[in-house]
Amino acid sequence: MRTPIAAGNWKMNFGPRQAAQFASVIRDPLRAISGAEIVLFPPFISIPAVHQILAGTTIGLGAQNLSDQPGGAYTGEVAASMIAELCQWVIVGHSERRHYYGETDALVNSKTRLALSANLTPIVCVGEDLEDREANLTERVITTQVRGSLGDLPAEQIGRVVVAYEPVWAIGTGRAATRQDAEDVIQLIRALMSELYGQGVADNTRILYGGSVTAANIGEFMASPQIDGALVGGASLKPEFVDIANVIASSKAGA
Ligand code: PGA
Fold this sequence. Notes:
By secondary structure, the chain is an alpha/beta fold. It has one domain: Aldolase class I (TIM Barrel). Helix content is 43%, strand content 15%. It has eleven helices and eight strands. The protein has helices spanning 16-31, 47-54, 80-86, 95-100, 105-117, 130-134, 138-150, 179-197, 199-204, 218-222, 240-251, and strands at 5-9, 37-41, 60-63, 89-92, 121-126, 162-165, 206-210, 229-232. Strands 1-2-3-4-5-6-7-8 form an eight-stranded parallel barrel, surrounded by six helices. Strand 1, helix 1 (16-31) and strand 2 form a beta-alpha-beta unit. Helix 1 packs parallel to helix 2 (47-54). The radius of gyration is 17 Å and the shape is globular. The structure holds 2-phosphoglycolic acid.
């Protein structure tokens, strides 16, 4: 039984003041939800403010990125061990990191390793872009990304890894994937995890969908037994995120 996840990636929105304000608005409605892990991902500088607001709740907190180095003279970077002082989670290899900051599968793999060794739960993102999809390269691209980003991780820590399938063409576009598209790729990811780590690990790995998730379409995704929750961008900046988390939490009840 895989506990579903509602993850809100705030991206580069909400400085400390606004983050605290918004977190206080959604905190109580979110705490009332059971049956899902709920996690907020504010920008680095707003993490302490949100940490304070969430104190005493089971709502998770995470960072959107981490350094590929364990510490030292790397100006502007934040190490996994530092994140772990306030957070339990971290997003690794989001498509915006891959596209705007040149993150490769090898880099994503070493960041994932560092996240795991700091006891963080990494959400590792993969996804094809529009050109790949139109050229029928989705399977090839996802296979390369999963093998490169998720291969060779320590066996005793692999159970903590969460994967997010986020087709790049669906992110922030209002054009979500169909449930069938998401399900097909998530099935492929599970098969690849099985190749890498065995069927048991594959069956227990939580795989999320991300890309233009809203309160209106989340029910459709969660109706799939393959989809274990969502990584939400735009809609996580609004109280709508509470509705999304509610649907995610109730969808697998009794499954
Ligand atoms: P979106 O972003 O929900 O705004 O499409 C999803 C994401 O990038 O995680």
